[in-house]
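SAMPLE LOG
Freezer: B-3
Tube label: C17
Construct: single chain, 166 aa
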Amino acid sequence: MRRYLLLSLIATVFGLPLVSSAQSDASIDVDSAIEIVRASMQAQKATLVAQAMDLTEQDGNAFWPVYRHYQYERSRLEDGRAAVIKEYIDKFPDLSDSEARTMADRMFEYDTRTVEIKKKYFKKFNRVLPALTVTKFFQLERRIDLMTEMKIESALPPLIENKQSE
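STRUCTURE (predicted):
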């Protein structure tokens, strides 16, 4: 059940069709599924950024190398965030108050580090591109992040089950 929930979360987050739910839990390699989905998402995101940014050749030559470094740093953070989500799913619904607090603290730390990376790369992008172009990119990046977070949150089980509905 937990593997099914995790795969559902992954499929929901990235808009991909769910791996056949008829498969047994033993035949599903969750880590491999996550890597495949993340690689696909990064490619889709790069395509979306390329279309939305509509960069000139000169600006594109300046933008893409910085973008690749930025995405690399973001993906390293997302590894940790994915680990917390997997842990949460594995422990739900028997998650203790202490474990929930620790997981929340870890997610807040990932949020803080994400903002730090964005600030760092805002400066790096501004060294090679006009501020308006950089601002447009980070506005697009924020929208993508918000949509992804919304999909993740809507797919997760609640921290507290409604005892009144029993």
